[in-house]
Amino acid sequence: MKLLVTGGLGFIGCNFIRLMLHEHDDIHILNIDDLRLGSNPENLRDLDDERRYEFCRGDIADEKFIAGLVKDADAIINFAAETHVDRSIARPESFLHSNVQGVFNLLEALRHHNSSARFVQISTDEVYGDILRGSFTEESTLKPSSPYSASKAAGDVFVQAYARTYGLEAMVTRCTNNYGPFQFPEKLIPKTILRAKSGLRIPIYGTGENVRDWIYVIDHCRAVEAVLLRGGKGEIYNISAAEEMSNLDVVKIILQALGKSEDLIDFVDDRPGHDARYSLDSSKIRTELHWHPQENFAEGIAETVAWYLENELWWQPLVDERVLHPTPWTLSW
Questions:
Q1: 119 in the Ramachandran plot: left (φ > 0), alpha (ψ -120 to 50) or beta?
Q2: Is the dihedral of CA 197, 321, 31, 291 positive or negative?
Q3: Which pLDDT score, from 0 to 100, does residue 254 have?
Q4: In 3-state terms, what secondary structure has residue 3?
Q5: pLDDT of 333 strictly over 80
Q6: 2-178+216-239 is classed CATH 3.40.50.720
Q7: 298 C-beta neighbours (distance < 10 Å), count
């Protein structure tokens, strides 16, 4: 099988590529990445001599570039996206470029050049907005709260439209918050690990009571694998591990793992439109595709903390003022 993976030098994409090469001897992967913020060539540096892996730098929003690469693919998995909510609030234009125009270009390229290929759009639980009680299903109304989630919702709707109108073998996955190795240091969990390690204060928006459902990145990748191999045309699959925790509790668990005092916690002004709680019902993918998460949060966060402590050579070049010295923390870029 020939896979075209977009955004494969990012956090989730690089873990997916590693998983697929490890699990499938008959797979060849072409990884397309534009090397924007969040992408890191070091994530897959050890695959430079892997004959089943190839890298090509490029932008999925470049119509001519992407059209020439989809012809021979058996499947496309689109991880490429601008992802950070804070940056979308400060500078929304790039999110429209990558998350909407990029998805449109991929779908158009498939429609005209390779309509039999499977397409998996990697989306987010944030397209649903927040929910105070209960959980969102795949039938729930989309109600995005930020420019980031709005751009992802737009991409999802294009995927569904192309599956129905043009018959593309296209599917959407929507996952909860990921954590694990290779996550960019500006995200909550690695940022907390690195700042706590250095004895720096840990900024938390508002009261820290915002709740997220956390999933270990490899479990997410295995879910994407299941959708790629067995998912239905035009279907949406929610992915969650049923590990709901407030941001404050997550930070406290990390501080405890590092032997640091909770006095490092620093409550800062909340960000605009901050969703109170995300929660997904993932019974569909569990029942229909027989996927189940294998890692609980206690095990996964211990492995994640250990990975960052053991891989300073990976994260040190990525650490900048936003991670170690945010003044002010909120929307400073």
A1: beta
A2: positive
A3: 97
A4: strand
A5: no
A6: yes
A7: 11
For every residue of 68-86, DSSP letters joined together read TTSTT-SEEEE------HH
Question: How do residues 139-164 score in pLDDT, each as one tens digit?
Answer: 999 999 888 999 999 999 999 999 99
pLDDT of 96 reads 87
Per-residue pLDDT reduced to its tens digit, 238-295: 999 999 999 999 999 999 999 999 999 999 998 887 888 999 999 999 999 999 999 9
Rounded-to-integer distance, Cα 255 and Cα 253, Å: 5
Residues 150, 204: Cα–Cα separation, whole Å = 24
DSSP tag of 324 = H
Greater pLDDT, 329 or 33? 33
The C-alpha atoms of residue 230 and residue 221 are separated, in whole angstroms, by 14
Question: Which residue, chain included where needed, has tokens 């397209």?
Answer: 127
Nearest to 186 by CA among 325, 299, 301: 325
Domain definitions of the chain by residue range: 2-178+216-239
Check: pTM over 0.85? Answer yes or no: yes
Share of the chain above pLDDT 90, in %: 84
Both tokens of 187, joined, read: 């995200």
Closest CA to 15 of 178, 182, 176: 182
H helices present in 24-146, as ranges: 63-67, 85-90, 93-96, 102-113
How far CA 12 is from CA of 53, 62, 77, 230, in Å, comes to 17, 22, 11, 20
**Residue 281: both structure tokens together:** 């019902």
Q: 176-196 b/e with 16+ CB inside 10 Å = b? A: bbbbbbbbbbbbbbbbbbbbb
Report the pLDDT value the prediction gives residue 330, as an integer from 0 to 100.
Answer: 35
**Catalytic sites, residue numbers:** 125-126, 148
Q: In degrees, to the nearest 5, what angle opens at C-alpha 155 toward C-alphas 160 and 20?
A: 85
d(CA 33, CA 294): 29
Task: At 15, list the tokens.
Answer: 């873990």
